[in-house]
Amino acid sequence: MAAVRYCPQAAQVPIHLARNRILLISGGEQSGKSLSTAAEIVARYGAWRLCYLVGPTYTGAHKEFDYIVAMLQKIGAVTNSGISRPRNGKATLRTRDGATLETISSEDGTKSITGTGESPDVLAMVEAGKQSFDIYL
Q1: C-alpha–C-alpha distance, residues 8 and 97, integer Å
Q2: Contact, 15 vs 25, CB < 8 A?
Q3: What mean pLDDT value characterizes the chain?
């Protein structure tokens, strides 16, 4: 994580030491969840080809998206031409080696995740407290 200049808080260190397939990163407002989620996704870069950031809206996942973009740029994994981040709507990133990061809105329903025909290697639900109930079913 030194290459991206990320220094976790003491309470976040166990997240980054875990090798679990499923992680639940929780905490209060402004506790660093977005940054530590992004750092964990970047730490696993190379092991994923498709990553979804699922927010309650597309813009609800922009914070994590922006952190991931900045970190991947620091290690030379992405160029500006590989980034599409409209103010509203789906943001996408394509890395130099062809990995894809996309934001998904749960407002579009569960089919926006499961109905794509794709199988993401990483699925990160962000702003979980603002998601609609049916997204958990």
Answers
A1: 27
A2: yes
A3: 84
